[in-house]
Amino acid sequence: MLEHIAARIATLEESATLQMAALVRELKAKGEDIIDLTLGEPDFDTPIHIKEAAKQAIDQGITKYTPVAGFLELRKSIVEKLKRDNQIEYTPDQIVVSTGAKQSIANVVMSVLNPGEEVIIPAPYWVSYSAISHLAEAKVVTIQSSVEAEYKITAAQLEQAITPKTRLFIFSSPCNPTGSVYTKEELEALAVVFRKHPNIIILADEIYEYINFTGAHCSIATLEGMYDRTVIVNGFSKGFAMTGWRLGYIAAPLWVAKACVKMQGQFTSGTCSITQMAGEAAMRGDMQATKDMCAQYLKRRDVVYAKLKEMQGVKVNLPTGAFYFFTDISSFFGKKNGATLIQNSSDMSMYLLADAKVSTVSGDAFGDGNCIRFSYATSEDKLMLAMDRIAESLAKLS
Ligand code: PMP
Ligand code: GLU
């Protein structure tokens, strides 16, 4: 039979994070000793009270289809969380629960962008923002930031990127892949620009909210005039170590929420009933486990940062949130180890996989080809060993 793949899929970039994760899984299955720093995935187990809630849900027979937007009680618990942690008032019909923040982002992008409309994405960005925007046939406009600017964009850069076709702005803070956190003042500077352009919707991806070492998470939705045009995306994968449960949500203006319900109603329906019951327990339960995990990430960040600072030719910012380092390794471009020539970030990522047996993700997938990303959501021992191996492999390049 003739293979006939639709153009939208044939031209769709494969998720670089998931692609590398699959390769590492394969290598490990063959017995290779790889230290896996690929995925942004907490190495901690889901807190017990959340797992217990899921077991209870099964025992109580909560196993049927759910409302498309999610159980009302779960949405109410999310409303309570948004008030408690973010000081923002929502009603349950402004909340749409999904099968992960990734699906929430897809719902929003598909719901608000027409083909040819523009979406501004500060780079480095999380891989799926651009791929999903391309699926919606939107034009992606990136704003480049640099390690010197702690990978944050300025109001002037934002102003310059806006055109009459701009419809959406997508960013994450704390940021994947850079770990940068926008302060309230920095967000206010961006809000000044947005106020002049009332047609732009802001998608604020706050999935790393609880992995923030600055002590203060600020949502842009709290700033004057921003509430009615901001869609907050959040999820349970990171803060509650629930990557496999698949649970995310939006808090949005009602018209966006309604559009997302319509979209989700045709694509996937309401997400897993058992996961939703677990999610409610996470929202209403003790936050100590989340705080403890954050404290561990901070410890790991410090030890890894110290190691990276010692490596010749590596430029790195001090991340203030999430659990990634996005390191500039461009000074090695043009260098060789034997027959292996490093010409770009992809070459570097593959070289480190082959020579250091450490897996990373190439920065070009995140919109910055000078860098590689690695996650430090793994044990300190493994991280130390990985840093030693990377340092050794880099030192062999000349
Ligand atoms: N946004 C960002 C910035 C992410 O890093 C991720 C990856 N976990 C997601 C969204 C998607 O998360 P989820 O597991 O909830 O789909
Ligand atoms: N978001 C995580 C990451 O950036 C998980 C992988 C993915 O969902 O793409 O590594």
Would you give an account of this structure?
With 398 residues, the chain is α/β, with parallel strands linked by helices. It has 13 helices and 14 strands. It folds into two domains: 146 residues, Aspartate Aminotransferase, domain 1 (Alpha-Beta Complex); 235 residues, Aspartate Aminotransferase, domain 2. α4 packs parallel to α10. The model has no long low-confidence stretch (mean pLDDT 96). The structure holds 4'-deoxy-4'-aminopyridoxal-5'-phosphate and glutamic acid. 4'-deoxy-4'-aminopyridoxal-5'-phosphate binds next to α5.
Which features would summarize this protein structure in a list?
Aspartate Aminotransferase, domain 2; 7-stranded mixed β-sheet; binds 4'-deoxy-4'-aminopyridoxal-5'-phosphate; 13 helices; Aspartate Aminotransferase, domain 1; 41% helix; alpha/beta; 3-stranded antiparallel β-sheet; binds glutamic acid; 398 residues; globular
Draw up the topology in text.
Layout: H1 7-10, H2 16-29, E1 35-36, H3 48-59, H4 72-86, E2 95-98, H5 101-112, E3 118-123, H6 127-135, E4 139-144, H7 155-161, E5 166-172, H8 184-195, E6 201-205, E7 230-235, E8 248-251, H9 254-267, H10 273-284, H11 288-310, E9 324-328, E10 336-337, E11 340-341, H12 345-356, E12 358-359, E13 361-362, E14 371-375, H13 380-395
Bound molecules: 4'-deoxy-4'-aminopyridoxal-5'-phosphate and glutamic acid.
